[in-house]
Amino acid sequence: MPMAHMDGFTYGWVNPVLAYLVACVGAALGLRCTVRALALPRDRRGGWLLLAATTIGCGIWTMHFIAMMGFSVTGASVVYNIPLTLASLLVAVLVVGFGVFYVGYRPPSVGTLLIGGTLTGLGVAGMHYLGMAAMDVAGTVQYNLGIVAASVGIAVFAATAALWMTLNIRRLWASAASALIAGVAVCAMHYTAMQAVSVKLNPTATAVGFPAAQFVLPVGIGIVVFLTIVAIVVAMSPEPRDQDEVEEAPERIAVTLFEGRLR
To answer: What per-residue confidence (pLDDT) applies to 241?
Structure first.
């Protein structure tokens, strides 16, 4: 079977740039949700952490398939198994969720950071390779295990770095910097992992599935709407310290009125 030529830049830099922007947006919103959660008491963190995991996972998944829409194999069509593709989205949210919740509920320590970063990085890598398993071409897909290991290492290292910044620097600029790092991590992991792929075409084989454009576009639009809603929620919700001030305001007013009467 002949080896096929693969091109990850079929449309130039359009797909990589869009993929990076989506990854950054998802990471930025997810990390801001994590910061909000960590500023709250333990029993009030769950909602923000769940939102963080879902946002980061959706951003990673959308980034992956935007990039894959720019991927082509000479002499063969690339199609996808839809159930397996959607399963990769679920894996991204669940495994990233394990990492985010671990960091959210464990005492801050180096061990917590390393375990949380490892789980989050494995979620990124797991989503990628499950998404690749959903890909079908008229031939055999093979992987260079050394490059696969390098791609997983990149995902874990960068996820850990992003979480470290989130845990140690709570300012808005830190979340933005963490999101840029996470975006680089996801894209670097993706394009490194694609270097591990080789395809041997089989003239007698038939690819079974659907082109990415047929299902990624509607699902992607739904995810963009979701991310927009999350952005509105994050922007409109007060910072935790402001919430405390709002909750304490009636008590301060009552004390002021009481003191005024005493005078």
So the answer is: 56
Is-contact 80 136, C-beta < 8 A? Answer: yes
Q: Among 2-11, 18-27, 63-72, 107-116, name the one with the lowest average pLDDT.
A: 2-11
> Predicted confidence band at 252 (pLDDT cuts at 50, 70, 90)?
very low
CA pair distance 25, 84, nearest whole angstrom = 25
Cα–Cα distance between 134 and 121 in angstroms, integer? 20
* Contact present, 75 and 222 (Cβ < 8 Å): no
Show the 3-state SS of 35-63. Answer: HHHHCCCHHHCHHHHHHHHHHHHHHHHHH
Phi then psi for residue 144, to 5 deg, are -85, 110
Cβ distance 197 to 132 under 8 Å?
yes
| CA atoms 172, 178, 182, 188: torsion sign | positive
The H-or-E segment that residue 173 falls in is helix 172-195
**Letter string b/e over residues 98-121, b meaning 16 or more CB atoms within 10 A of that residue's CB:** bbbbbbbeeeeeeebbebbbbbbb
Model pLDDT for residues 132-167, shown as the tens digit of each residue:
888 888 878 889 999 999 999 988 988 888 778 777
The angle at the Cα of 121, spanning 102 to 240, to the nearest 5 degrees, equals 45
The Cα–Cα gap between 160 and 170 comes to 16
- Spell out the domain ranges in the chain: 6-237
Q: Decide: pTM greater than 0.90.
A: no
